[in-house]
């Protein structure tokens, strides 16, 4: 049965399929049958944009799943002109592990393109930050600075591949919102509170990396406390969080927290 199906599919592919949804169903059958002999045909259809827009990424994933050569997808990625399309970022994610330099250069360039929507730039910056790109983090921090809010779906684990020194430098750009939250002006408190939680969460994650990172974070927070005291001399808010971060770090001599314990500690810190 599998042989007959494969033979029929191959025959149809060679003849040519004009109907896009029939084309998609055929390559799906190739995936189900693990028929890698169709790879070159699938690649050709991808390059010629024969699939419906929402099936193009699906076709690329099938091509890769059938052991298609990712190197052959790189020229297609470089030829894409619509940076706002789902195909652009999805393909970047597929190719990044093998071609990090080429992909990151293209993505960083798209962050300054006037043709790319703000929403898509945020998605691209999220991915870049997750891969360890400082440019991605800088873009997201500037977004927070300009909007006084957290970029959609941005979470601290995205910071794990970026050096502590650089993260702290970027955090300094949004420190004013962290400090202003403790003043009498509460009109922006909901938006600022999300930034404060993000920063506290991030600072703790940075601190548990090593003793050196803890010292960097402590120094950063001590500076923040001095700035806060100029605004509100009676406030000890930052100092309080500094002590908690140090205390939690010291509680585990080996600095080896499990997932559940780390989540519990983070929940305590941002309360």
List low-confidence stretches: 183-193
Query: How would you sum up the major sheet?
Result: none
Q: What percentage of the residues does DSSP assign to strands (E)?
A: under 5%
Average pLDDT works out at 80
Q: End-to-end distance, in Å?
A: 61 Å
Give the helix/strand class. Answer: mainly alpha
Number of strands: 0
Q: Tell me the number of helical segments per DSSP (H or I, 4 or more residues long).
A: 15
In helices, the fraction of residues equals 55-70%
Question: How would you portray this structure in words?
Answer:
The radius of gyration is 25 Å and the shape is elongated. Residues 183-193 have low confidence and may be disordered. It is mostly helical. It is built from 15 helices and no strands. Helix 6 (86-95) packs antiparallel against helix 7.
Keywords:
mainly alpha, 271 residues
Topology overview:
Blueprint: H1 2-15, H2 20-32, H3 39-47, H4 53-65, H5 74-79, H6 86-95, H7 100-110, H8 118-130, H9 134-147, H10 164-171, H11 175-180, H12 189-207, H13 211-231, H14 237-251, H15 259-269
Write a concise synopsis of the structure shown.
With 271 residues, this protein is an all-alpha fold.
């Amino acid at each position: 049965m599998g042989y007959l199906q494969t033979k029929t599919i191959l025959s149809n592919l060679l003849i040519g399929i004009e109907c896009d949804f029939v084309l998609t169903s055929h390559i799906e059958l190739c995936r189900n049958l693990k028929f890698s002999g169709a790879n070159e045909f699938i690649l050709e259809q991808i390059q010629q944009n024969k699939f419906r827009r929402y099936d193009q990424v699906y076709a690329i994933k099938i091509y890769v799943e059938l052991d298609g050569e990712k190197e052959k997808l790189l020229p297609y990625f470089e030829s894409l002109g619509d940076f706002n399309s789902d195909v652009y970022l999805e393909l970047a994610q597929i190719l990044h592990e093998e071609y990090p330099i080429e992909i990151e250069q293209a993505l960083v360039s798209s962050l300054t393109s006037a043709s790319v929507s703000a929403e898509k730039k945020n998605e691209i910056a999220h991915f870049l930050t997750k891969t360890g790109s400082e440019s991605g983090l800088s873009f997201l921090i500037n977004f927070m600075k300009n909007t006084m809010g957290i970029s959609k779906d941005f979470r601290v684990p995205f910071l794990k591949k970026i050096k502590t020194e650089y993260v702290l430098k970027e955090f300094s750009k949004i420190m004013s919102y962290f400090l202003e939250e403790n003043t009498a002006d509460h009109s922006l408190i909901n938006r600022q509170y999300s930034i404060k939680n993000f920063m506290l969460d991030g600072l703790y994650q940075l601190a548990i990396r090593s003793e050196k990172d803890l010292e960097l974070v402590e120094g950063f927070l001590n500076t923040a406390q001095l700035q806060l005291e100029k605004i509100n001399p009676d406030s000890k808010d930052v100092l309080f969080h500094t002590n908690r971060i140090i205390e939690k770090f010291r509680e585990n001599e080996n600095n080896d927290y499990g997932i559940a314990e780390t989540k519990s500690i983070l929940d305590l810190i941002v309360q």
